[in-house]
Amino acid sequence: MHLFLSQSTALRLTTFSILYVAQGIPIGLFTIALPAWMAAQGASAAQVGSVVAITGLPWAFKLISGPFMDRFAFPSMGRRRPWIMAAQACLSLSLLGLLLVENPVDDLWTLIVVGVFINSFAALQDVAVDGMAIDILPTTERGRANALMAFGQVVGYSGFGALGGLLLTRYGLATTGLVSALIVSAIFLFSTAVRERLGERLLPWTQGDVADADQLVDASFRAIFGNLLRVLVLPMSLLLIGVELLSRMSAGIYVSLLPLMAVQDLGYSAEEYGYWFGLTGGVAAVIGIFFGPLIDRFGAHRLLGVALLGSAGFALAFAFVVVGGAGDGLILTLLAGSQIFAQGFFVSMIALFMGICWTRVAATQFAIYMSLANLSRSLGAGVFALWGAQFGSAGMLYLMAGFMVSAAALLFWFNPDGHRVRLAEIEGQPIRQGPA
To answer: Does this model's pTM top 0.70?
Structure first.
């Protein structure tokens, strides 16, 4: 059976969902399972925040790999697929590096170094997958694809957040690393079997050739960066970067604060935290599938505004819980609600950034936006590492809410039609007006 992405909508949507599961596994491990496990072992806010902030930095430097992927390729196997295969193979091997860490609290920097390698290869895969999505997805499929890709990533990080919490508590870090490597290896075998276009090689030594001459790359680095600079400084691009900075800093505080708050303030075990986070995340992922049609009907920027204000409301509600106390039912409701709004944010933000990309440098431009998103999240985790102990859980939740409300206010000035006009002027083509 031959599998070609260009020939099947179902295969495209399934493949991108599965690839996003793979990159969600290290996210779940380093933002859910490990922080909660460390908190249960007495780790400080500075230690947990440092692990989240530093191991997340490779996601902020995806902008480095984007131009290389646009410049260098092996198009007879597909423009992006060889990069995906290489990244997944290295990700599987790097996860085995967790076997070298005996105790994450005592061997903090060994854990951080291994985590940086793991997340570097996961981030490299992410850039390649996003580039493939931009290259091969028809415009009419992007809403559904974005929702399903977000679903896949949440399944990856929530599912492995729960599974990782169980494995860490019962069997330790070495077994957790081995299981995660086996799961990623299985996904690697799947991505090896799926080709981008009819006629391309399955492996370097098999028969096949370039299926689409447009996939040949002849742009110099100078041309790539020159074109990038022209579009990155457009007003709507800068506005969305500001929205991204504020909202993702809030997310960085959240992923650092939540395990400590759950274990040390609310009295849950690391295993309970991982289980409930995974369960509510799964519910949010399923609901998030329906955000794609909402984006197509109402516009991504409107859904993003609702998601930001909803997230701010749930952050304030969590602050009242920490101060005044609450039962398990209310806490789980707040956790589920916050994850649903986070899913809405993720889906709509991806759609917005894809929508403002210039096709000539779309893969690299999109990689830069996603890099800045992850840099902002690491900055938020760094803020928590510095000030979390001083201001306490409630104080950090108030700060999160302030960031998200500010981002929503900034989004009020977003004008997609104006951006399309400017892109058309740069391209030197007739201006095309379309729906927001």
So the answer is: no
